[in-house]
Amino acid sequence: MRIRSLAIATLLVPQLHAAPLSEADRQALIEQLDELKGQAGEQATTRLKAAAAAFSSAMKDEDAATELYVKCIEKVDFEMQDRDSSAFRDWKRRNKDRLDEEGHGLALRHQLRWAVLTLQAASDRTKTAELAPELLEALEAIYRDPKALSRHFNILGQPVDSTVFARAYGLSGYKIENWPMSPLQAGRDKVRVDAPFQLVIFPALRQKKDFAGLREAWDRRIHFEDVTCGFWSGGDAEDGMSPERIAFTTDTRPMLEWEKEEDLFKQGDQQTAAVAMLTHLKNHIGHSHARDWEARFRELVEPKDEATDTQG
After folding, report:
1. How far apart, in whole angstroms, are the C-alpha atoms of residue 6 and residue 207?
2. 221, 193 in Cβ contact below 8 A?
3. Burial 180-211 (b: 16+ CB within 10 A, else e)
4. What is the pLDDT along the chain (312 residues), one digit of tens a residue?
């Protein structure tokens, strides 16, 4: 320790002449960097735990979620900006109707739940597949009452690392590879729900060769897409077949059904998927993608001609 201290002290003294680092200097610097890395890791872990505890508590009911949201707004947009407390009171007064609006607190609860799952994934990035059932449960909860969320689906499309919750707890920009940072992808005129399935849920089931689970997960995704068209993409499920739902039923649903069976065929459930694909072609022979489906199906089931590979 004394040698390292002396080396650091030497480095801090202004040099009259340019000099290369000695081996002792290098070792001392590396040890200091290791210590800083350890301290940064400990601080990050502390932040994650504090955020997870606060989010888990607040997501239990709408009032608690709204209360935490307001506190985070106060911290990030007023206290950290050195704005007067009267400005925050004005903000609360102006936004009272929005905060009390039906579904707003519910949307915040779902956002917090997704944030907690994201923090769990961040704590051990090798085990994201184990969170697939919880992701699916979280989506089920969102789609259980879509009408209540119809005015607030944009909250569910906001990446959790950019929310006011993340900013208040020092988690802004916290990205995780191959992980959906929001349950929905809300564009200007369309809402999508494919990312959680494509990044986590489907890969986890494929890895386990759980064909029944994979088929069921595909059915849930298709159902969610249908609900989305009914409530969140300009349509109204209670009014029957709106233009959005007609487009989904006649065009998008058949495409997703085909993708499901092709996926299952490629994963190994060939007999069931092959029969389903043939039936699908018969039922949707007039679909714009029918010719492409036929070609892809033929490529899957026709035996490969290896004669040309063996010719010299």
Report:
1. 54
2. yes
3. bbbbbbbeeeebebebbbebbbbebbbeeeeb
4. 444 554 444 444 455 456 787 878 777 777 677 666 654 555 566 777 889 999 999 999 999 999 999 999 999 999 999 999 999 999 999 999 999 999 999 999 999 999 999 999 988 888 899 999 999 999 999 999 888 898 898 899 999 999 999 999 998 767 788 999 999 987 655 778 999 999 999 999 999 999 999 999 999 999 999 988 877 765 554 555 678 888 899 999 999 999 999 999 999 999 999 999 999 999 999 999 999 999 999 999 997 765 545 454
**How far does Cα 272 stand from its chain's mean position?**
31
Q: What is the pTM of this model?
A: 0.81
Residue 260: both structure tokens together: 């499901």
**CA–CA dist 266, 260 (Å, integer):** 10
Residues 161 and 195 sit within 8 Å (Cβ to Cβ): no
3-class secondary structure per residue, the chain: CHHHHHHHHHHHCCCCCCCCCCHHHHHHHHHHHHHHHHHHHHHHHHHHHHHHHHHHHHCCCHHHHHHHHHHHHHHHHHHCCCCCHHHHHHHHHHCHHHHHCCCHHHHHHHHHHHHHHHHHHHHCCCCHHHHHHHHHHHHHHHHHCHHHHCCCHHHHCCCHHHCHHHHHCCCCCCCCCCCCCCCCEECCCCEECHHHHHHHHHHHHHHHCCHHHHHHHHHHHHHHHHHHHHHCCCCCHHHCCCHHHHHHHHHHHHHHHHHHHHHHHHHCCHHHHHHHHHHHHHHCCCCCCHHHHHHHHHHHHCCCCCHHHHCC
